[in-house]
Inverse folding.
């Protein structure tokens, strides 16, 4: 899942979020969508220096894909460093990777489609839209989903404890217990029970606090309202219509589709190959596997109004309840040159990625690094600034 809060340029660092890491074992064969050779061979000058700074920061490899004027066949790919430190293979535009919390905008899109279809209301208590048998309240002062609305789940104002920060689970997710527990399977109900056992961080609706638990619950809401798993609804409503055939939701499968590089995580003072693990501990909060090309296509379609009616499109970007920190599934990055772009990031063991685009979706940038090490925030913002600010001036 994505385990860390968005790295928006103006947002203060919020609570760290546990990640998922994956060492890729040979995966399912896939037919990659590769940009024309000419576009890959001529990386754009805008992002290359910023990607090199990310590698200098400590990332084994970094890559970006820029789509201008909605012209996907002409998207520009650039890379620095290595996809695999042992073989010295470089990243390619076709490489699959774990996208962590970049899963969240897709989940939010489905929820807002259900709102537009009047099958759900943002003001509805979450507990009224959960499958039978799923816990709705914790014991002895734990949280209570009957007091949390769908809107509060979407914009992280629910106050629900972030289950990936449970001390015991945290040590297993990416701490010293990672090696022994990387292939453990978890159910959403089990993870929700862990979260509900903790007191809420704030009363519902009073404060923004990024929590993976919110989107874990939203995945369950989709299942209850539609009768289908959230991943199936995303495929039907988003992936198939938009032609995102390199994006998948692996469930409990620890393997990445081919082609892919390696993912690297730091545990203590050791760099660990974290390419493979059971992603069920992420679920609707961040299990998605994708490519840079599919991310650009998704955000271009979303920001271009292809998935949501105008009212819900305005809602997904509305940050009024979070003091400008987060909308109902997207957040704004306000760049130093004054340009504002909309998107999300994703952080999971061994991987960090971010996508952002202009309103209307004609200009989109996605980039990634194959590590979950904390990099200099100025250097991550610099990738977006290099392209959006250069085009603005």
């Amino acid at each position: 899942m994505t385990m860390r809060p968005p790295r928006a340029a103006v947002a203060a660092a919020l609570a760290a979020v546990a990640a998922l890491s994956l060492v890729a074992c040979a995966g399912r064969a896939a037919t990659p969508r590769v940009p024309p050779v000419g576009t890959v061979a001529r990386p754009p000058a805008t992002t290359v220096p910023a990607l090199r700074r990310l590698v200098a920061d400590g990332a084994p490899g970094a890559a970006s894909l820029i789509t201008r004027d909605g012209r996907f066949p002409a998207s520009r790919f650039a890379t620095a460093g290595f996809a695999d430190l042992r073989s010295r293979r470089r990243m390619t535009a076709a490489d699959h990777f774990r996208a962590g919390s970049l899963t969240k905008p897709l989940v939010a899109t489905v929820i807002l489609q259900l709102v537009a279809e009047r099958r759900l209301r943002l003001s509805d208590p979450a507990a009224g839209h959960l499958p039978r048998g799923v816990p709705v309240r914790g014991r002895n002062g734990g949280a209570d989903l009957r007091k949390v609305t769908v809107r509060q789940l979407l914009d992280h104002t629910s106050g629900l404890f972030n289950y990936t920060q449970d001390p015991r689970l945290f040590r297993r997710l990416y701490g010293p217990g990672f090696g022994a527990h990387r292939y453990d399977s978890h159910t959403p109900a089990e993870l929700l029970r862990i979260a509900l056992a903790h007191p809420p961080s704030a009363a519902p609706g009073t404060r923004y606090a990024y929590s993976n638990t919110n989107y874990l619950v939203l995945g369950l809401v989709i299942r209850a309202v539609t009768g289908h798993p959230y991943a199936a609804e995303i495929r039907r409503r988003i992936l198939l219509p938009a032609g995102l055939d390199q994006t998948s939701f692996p469930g409990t499968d620890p393997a990445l589709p081919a082609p892919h590089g390696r993912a690297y995580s730091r545990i203590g003072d050791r760099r660990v190959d974290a390419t493979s693990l059971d992603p069920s501990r992420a679920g609707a909060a961040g299990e998605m596997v994708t490519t840079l090309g599919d991310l650009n296509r998704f955000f271009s379609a979303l920001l271009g109004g292809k998935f949501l009616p105008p009212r819900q499109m305005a809602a997904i970007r509305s940050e009024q309840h979070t003091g400008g920190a987060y909308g109902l599934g997207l957040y704004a990055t306000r760049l130093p040159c004054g340009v504002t772009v909309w998107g999300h990031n994703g952080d999971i063991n061994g991987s960090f990625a971010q996508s952002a685009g202009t309103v209307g979706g004609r200009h989109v940038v996605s980039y990634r690094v194959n590590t979950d090490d904390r990099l200099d925030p100025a250097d991550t913002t610099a990738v977006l600034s290099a392209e959006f600010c250069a085009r603005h001036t």
Summary: The CA atoms of residues 192 and 213 lie 7 Å apart. Strands lie at 61-67, 76-81, 97-98, 264-267, 270-273, 289-290, 331-334, 340-348, 351-357, 364-369. The mean pLDDT is 89.
